[in-house]
Specification:
With 324 residues, the protein is α/β, with parallel strands linked by helices. The chain is 46% helix and 13% strand. The chain folds into 2 domains: 204 residues, Class I glutamine amidotransferase (GATase) domain (Rossmann fold, 3-Layer(aba) Sandwich); 103 residues, Arc Repressor Mutant, subunit A (Orthogonal Bundle), CATH 1.10.10.
Length: 324
């Protein structure tokens, strides 16, 4: 049997502990019903016998403490809650154990912002990682050695897995079920839990908020100008002139401050505005396109799909009840 150790950190999200426990236990039942032996030995593991969550509102009783688990096959790191630096500090005692299990051959999977605790081990340095779209800028600042992959629901590299935000972790759970069992069992689990098994992007859910937590006043002015003039066709040369710096210097400073190139930033601000319009208005595709400064339908459609994972029509139909 494969040993599955679900960590119970301090300041963690209870659902992100309960869901993998529920899923892998259910898969065992599916296997038994099909005349096969159960595959997973699922345990809740922590630094203490009882871990208080939500300021003591809930208590999770672990099956074993980390000092009792000498070797496991799969470690789940659930999502954390609250301030990430504080949450990591509360769980420093878990970090050596995670590293030890990985060194012994275990696979390690973080769910949503559990990626922050995983990255604190150093195991992600030089590797790709996914996390909740709303925490990407903070993650990049805290862990510059890790390659943040935008939009991905599931990222896998060298026995380390990470997932996108919130309920996206269900797709990682199903991905691992399929890997350890087969496609048929994973599909059965996806139907039982009503999860879209092959969703591979969280891009449609992401809300772009430009990184402004930096000290470059000129770059911030440029950001504000872009955001206030989404209906205009803004050029990089125009912005550089307004900031009274050379184009090359402006592009370098902008990328350094925001983690986006100037062109990417302009496109993402415009597409974010287009998304909001599709969600709340009856405007057609061309009207929205013109509102955000595009005149080429093909270019607008291509950029919109690259950023959101959906075409403008698909996005409007998905999020606007009045559409159609």
């Amino acid at each position: 049997m494969k040993k599955v150790s679900i960590l119970v950190p301090e300041s963690s999200v209870m659902q992100a502990i309960a869901d993998p426990q529920y899923l892998f236990t259910a898969v065992n039942l599916f296997l038994v019903a099909a005349g096969k032996p159960p595959l997973f030995d699922v345990e809740l593991v922590g630094a203490k016998k009882e871990v208080q969550l939500n300021n003591g509102m809930f208590a999770v009783h672990t099956d074993r403490q980390i000092k009792e688990v000498k070797k496991t096959d799969l470690v789940f790191i659930p999502a954390l809650f609250g301030d990430m630096k504080t949450a990591i500090d509360k769980n420093k005692v878990l970090i050596p154990w995670i590293e030890e299990q990985y060194d012994k051959g275990a696979e390690v999977a973080s769910l949503c912002v559990g990626a922050f605790l995983l990255a604190s081990t150093g195991l992600l340095n030089g590797k790709k990682c996914s996390t909740h779209w709303g925490f990407m800028n903070e993650f990049r600042e805290m862990f510059p050695e890790v390659e943040m992959v935008e939009g991905n629901i599931v990222t896998e590299e060298k026995r380390i897995y990470s997932s996108g935000g919130a309920n996206s972790y269900w797709n990682l759970l199903l991905y691992l079920v399929e890997k350890y069992t087969n496609r048929e069992t994973a599909i059965l689990a996806s139907k039982y839990f009503a999860i879209d098994i092959d969703r591979d992007s969280q891009a449609a859910f992401a809300m772009f908020k430009g990184q402004k937590d930096h000290g470059d006043k000129e770059v911030r002015k440029a950001q504000e100008y872009i955001e206030k003039n989404i209906h205009e066709r803004i050029t990089i040369d125009e912005l550089a002139d307004k900031m009274a710096v050379s184009r090359r210097t402006f592009e370098r400073r902008f990328k350094q401050a925001t983690n986006n190139s100037v062109l990417e930033y302009i496109q993402r601000v415009k597409i974010e505005a287009a998304k909001r319009s599709f969600e709340s208005s009856r405007k057609n595709i061309n009207e929205v396109m013109f509102d955000v400064g595009y005149t080429d339908t093909k270019a607008f459609r291509t950029i919109f799909k690259r950023i959101t994972g959906l075409t403008p029509i698909e996005y409007r139909n998905k999020y606007n009840k009045q559409a159609g």
